[in-house]
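hey so u asked for the seq, here:
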Amino acid sequence: MSSNETEPSGRLHGLDALRGTALLLGVVLHASLSYFPVTIWIVPDTDNSPVASVIFFAIHLFRMTTFFLVAGLFAHMMLGRRGTLGFIRDRAMRIAGPLATFWFPMLAAIIAGLIWMAAIRNGGTIPTGGPPPPPLTLETFPLTHLWFLWVLLILYVAMLILRAPFAMADRDGGWGRFVDRITGALIGPWTPALMAAPLAIAFWFAPNWIPFFGIPTPDTGLVPNPVALTAFGTAFGLGFLLDRRRDLLVRIERLWPVFTVVALGVGTGALVLAGGPVPELMPVTDPELKAPLAAVMALAVFASTLAVLSLALRFASGYSAVRRYLADSSYWVYIIHLPLVMVGQILVVNETWPWFVKFGVVIGGTLAISLLTYELLVRHSFVGGWLNGRRIPRRGRPDPDLSPAE
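ran it, structure tokens below
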């Protein structure tokens, strides 16, 4: 065993870092949207590059499936430590609570950014006479970038409901041993293909599916789209099962060269099939084209997810104060980042700098403000205890063995 990553009593440093990285990459992902070679974002910039769309594609391919896989593993861990009622109380406070608290301020800030950008396009005055916003319904509810909290809550409820009859019936542990054997058979070089099969079917049946964007983001509507539920639900389920078989994390770690090579190869193929760095961003309608696209894209999603998981286990399993700090801050950074990204994009939109300079300024400014507010307002206050499950004293060092926040 190359690390203490699988010790049941210790903190899973590699997975905690991976969860934090998935959230922090949201800053890079949203910052890249302004610099696409085709207009897709509310703050389009005339300085752009195909490199920006490749960066977006690569991050979007694995980021949220990875997050939900790790969330599933941590959910099983917390359920075992705190029991069902303790788990429900914790998730209500630290997932449902922030969603209810921050949703409206973030939506208001995003709308303010939209109005600001509209005024810039209109010569400095706010345009009038536009169409009214759609009425709020189950299909149109704007979850914004906080949609992941809503989907997490749905998966938690589904997990508790599905688990209940098996937990009651499994008095002698027979069901558990059977499930653990199935999980063991699932993990190997073939894992990405097995996990990709349900997602490929979901892609195939999805109407108006745009391959370049892979899994459609469920940021609008209280009922997530079937593709997102399939992808994130299967990833969450795999993580849940892996916590029962921590020994399999060692197997995944050892497969990092295989997963990485497959991810790079299939991911490149998926990008080419989806239209390349300058895609047309049109739904695929030809069945003969949609079938291979669905298969390759689904395989690329889970190959890249397993690749970054194995790399985190292999190279980030030890304690690092920097990684730990960034992992702790990532929840706060993600909650507040999107309005800050929009402000940064608007502030530099008329500058004549190269696109990559603007891109870097937006990312750097967003992270600087987010991390500064985290340090001054969150980490050492009751807000830090609320979001991360613990309040860090200003002169104290976090215990490296404390259980993870998610």
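Residues 202 and 226 are 7 Å apart (CA to CA). Confidence is low (pLDDT under 50) at residues 1-9, 401-406.
lmk if thats what u needed
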